[in-house]
Design brief:
single chain, 98 residues, 2 helices
Amino acid sequence: MKVRGRVWLGAWLLLFLGVAVAVVARQRSALAIAARLRSLQNERLALEARRAEFETRIREAGSRPVLVPKARDRLKLRDPSDSEAFLLTMPADADTTR
């Protein structure tokens, strides 16, 4: 039995259809992955913004203008008078390795 033109045409059409289905499936998968990647990038940007905000809040909470009033209130501390404040100096030839 000899293969005729219609059979070859049908085989080529089936092959083309199979390749087209594979290409469409691959494109659909790529679009889904790209959407997920965009979502993760947006989430990462939001988390980095929150991290920066928290770092700023930590820096502000640990600053002297914030801590001094809290120490005064909670520990009942006061500022020293001029006669109570003095500087400690270290001689230049002192051994600092100890």
